[in-house]
Write a structure and sequence with these properties.
Blueprint: H1 8-12, E1 29-30, H2 37-40, H3 50-59, H4 65-68, H5 83-90, E2 95-96, E3 106-112, E4 115-121
Antiparallel strand pairs: 1-2, 3-4
Length: 122
């Protein structure tokens, strides 16, 4: 018995595009007129030690660490959910949303084994 032939139309149903579909969006941001950005932004969440987390908590009651990690103790396996805290940040209008959608640019410098490299993304 030979293998059954598959029509091209059946194969096209499972076509996966090779390019990502991206679209601009309206991101929530801290309102720099209501809060000092130096007091509320943090390192990436996976780089924050318990000592750094305590410093961020002391810096501001509205620090981003309260949303992304919540308060955790040494030995806790996972951070607490930040959804309720994120909602509470919107209440006093500390966060704002732009009127128009946009793309965000990211520029970062990272060091690996003493060698610096730059990363840029949209």
């Amino acid at each position: 018995m030979g293998a059954a032939a598959v029509s091209p139309s059946v194969l096209l149903q499972f076509h996966v595009p090779f390019m990502a579909s991206v679209a601009p969006f309206r991101a929530l941001r801290y309102d720099p007129e209501r809060v000092a950005l130096t007091k509320v932004v943090t390192q990436p969440y996976d780089k924050i030690t318990l000592q750094m987390q305590d410093q961020y908590y002391d810096a501001s009651p509205h620090n981003l660490v309260r949303i992304i990690l919540g308060k955790r103790q040494a030995g806790d396996p996972t951070p607490a959910s930040g959804a309720a805290r994120a909602f509470s940040f919107r209440t006093p209008s500390l966060l704002c949303m732009p009127i128009r959608s946009a793309f965000a640019c990211l520029m970062a410098r990272q060091y690996w084994s003493g060698v610096a490299s730059s990363v840029s993304a949209v």
